[in-house]
């Protein structure tokens, strides 16, 4: 069975992707900071009859990143890395003139530095896979200028660029930066708690990710909603 590592895998999009892959028979390594919530998601995925390893920890910790990839190795290798763990840098979001610099550093550390560190750990087994794939979770804020989204958007834009360069440097892999669009997640609620609008569930975009895995288009940046419309 193919093996995937998903960071931020306990809830939101990470959980939705984990269950979507488990339903297809993927073995999973799931990482997240909250052990109890992560264990619950692992049990949900295991109900599909797949093997699931829950690895609680912080993706900024090099030891945790090493443990994630080692767990994948014990399952037989690594075919897919999903870099989903993310922080906003300020909750709720604020204008740049008030953005805490410590928060921006935290966003860059989690969303960019840790993501690259994990890719570096994962490259040997990904190169050995016949279908080695990296997916980084992007955001519309990485490409568009929205008031108060500057810090988070800058971090996601940096992540997009890392993915684009990785695709050039690793032509044997598929590397996709995927913008899932607005979703009903804790992250979005923390970003704009008073917004009060209805947003789609994370599960609604899982078919777009599965389509990418099925069709394996060239490396690049994709919008999940666009993939669903064109399906």
From TrEMBL:
The keyword Metal-binding does not apply. The keyword Secreted does not apply. One of its GO terms (molecular function) is oxidoreductase activity. GO terms for cellular component: membrane. Keywords: Oxidoreductase. Belongs to the short-chain dehydrogenases/reductases (SDR) family. This is SDR family oxidoreductase. It comes from Streptomyces qinzhouensis.
